[in-house]
Design brief:
The protein is 38% helix and 17% strand. The chain has 143 residues and is an alpha+beta fold. A 4-stranded antiparallel β-sheet has the order 2-3-1-4. It binds uridine-5'-diphosphate and magnesium ion (MG).
Length: 143
């Protein structure tokens, strides 16, 4: 039997169109107001290779090529966030993948342009939160 420890951490990115549109501050404000603590954060730009690796789980899906070119098209903000029930609570805060299906008050409802350009990433499990945080941050960059 494997005991899965709840990590209380999730990983997010503010995606290129949200950075381009000047929404870093407004989105961080929403994250802060929802009770998440920032453990690590950086503004950076993914190469196409790095974006391809990050989204490798989607490589058989029809939107993969477009997703990789979009996510490497401009700077992003990557962050590790901490809160009780972080993964599920952050998914609730960002809303559905397609902003036309996202609930009122969610970050994607307010800031996303489309299903592809949907403003923010949020990890879908504790395991992926750890993998994705490790992709961007060293141990020394977390506090
Ligand atoms: N995506 C897309 N078209 C789709 C589904 C997803 O362009 O039909 C993009 C979108 O940017 C999404 C990302 O691929 O955020 C990852 O897809 P996933 O199904 O994991 O959605 P998420 O977990 O981000 O809600
Ligand atoms: Mg996902």
């Amino acid at each position: 039997m494997t005991i899965q420890m709840a990590t209380n951490r999730t990983f997010t990115m503010i995606k290129p169109e949200a950075v381009e549109n000047g929404n870093i501050g407004a989105i961080l404000e929403r994250i802060n107001a929802a009770g998440f603590r920032i453990v690590a954060m950086k503004k950076t730009q993914l190469s196409a290779d790095s974006a391809g690796t990050f989204y490798e789980v989607h490589k058989e899906r029809p939107f993969y090529g477009e997703l990789v070119s979009y996510m490497s098209s401009g700077p992003i903000v990557a962050a590790i966030l901490e809160k009780d029930n972080a993964v599920a609570d952050f998914r609730a805060l960002i809303g559905a993948t397609d902003p036309t299906e996202a609930a009122d008050g969610t970050i994607r409802k307010e800031f996303a342009e489309s299903k592809a350009k949907n403003a923010v990433h949020g990890s879908d499990s504790d395991e992926n939160a750890a993998i994705e945080g490790d992709f961007f941050f060293t141990e020394e960059e977390r506090s």
